[in-house]
Amino acid sequence: MSASLVVQTLILSGAAGFLSLEYLQNHGAVTRTLSGTDKNIYRVVLSVLSYLVYLLTYWLLSGPTFSGPVFRVILAIVLTGIVVVLVTYLWGKHASDNEVMPNGATRLDAREIAFNNSHGGDIQADLFDLSGHYIVSGLLRNVNLEAGVSKDITLQKLPDGYTAHKDLETAIKASQLMYLDTSSGIQYYLIYFLAQE
Fold this sequence. Notes:
Helices cover 45% and strands 19% of the residues. It is an alpha+beta fold. Strands 3-2-1-5-4 form a five-stranded antiparallel sheet.
């Protein structure tokens, strides 16, 4: 089996698309709540784009100045890897710098936006049911954002210096954002803190 065929098989198998999608989801360029089918579509498209970059690079290196097909394949692999990593990085950077698209839509869903502190610090959550009855307050520690998994959260007891807002009106005034989880009927009143140095 030739080296070119191995590379083509690897790229077409979805490895490049899988890694690119993981990076983009981890950096907020693509929502984490994609269904399995949607993830596969992203992976296939990203893999096909990577393969096209590989073919173009290989074709450009096919000129008379490069000797040997093995050298061309290796150089095409390296250059394709660099191009794919650079484009994926720039796409992720652009998306994180421009959370709102020109048409007003966002790349992330409401839950992802609510539970992400762009300041890098803690997020305090004061939880109430839909009737306005207090449930609990705490610092968000873990939040499941992936599609197809439970929407559980982990709260840490509020440390000294933090105030639990047990009255709905006080929580509304103190919060910077209210996230309504319609599936569980819980209102999250969120306060975002700056990262401590």
